[in-house]
Amino acid sequence: MPTxxxxxxxxxxxLYLVLVAVVADVSHAADRVDRLPxxxxxxxxxxxxxxxxxxxxxxxxxxxxxxxLSRELVSRAFRGDARRWALCVVGRESAFxxxxxxxxxxxxxxxxxxxxxxWVNVRRLVVDPVYAVAVMVRMSEGGRYRRPWQGSGYAC
Length: 156
Prior knowledge:
By secondary structure, this protein is mainly α. Helix content is 54%, strand content 3%. The chain has 6 helices and 2 strands, in the order ααααββαα.
């Protein structure tokens, strides 16, 4: 027959295992950006960009979390073949680093050229991934106009 102490230890162990399972499930769910509602995705991307998700202005130099959020933003903004194209462009241009700036004065996820597009707020472009995706959608007319990205030496 188990003693009171053994029962208490068994109860605490069971409680600990339940808590570990709940925490693991919550952290896994939080990492599933594809399940986030759009407003939550946008808040998470904005927060990540403002709190260290962008490590530098170099190609691909963002945290894995920031890159996943950026990828999901791009994926949701385009439909059909345009989605594949947009993901290819952003992957090649910035490797999903919203803060990327090239030597040729290209900025953000889609590497928008500042001199060619004076209407774009480039300061915001490199700190706000939601804005960066909206600019790409507008410039490409939802993926129908691909010319600004065609001369980059690769095909998407």
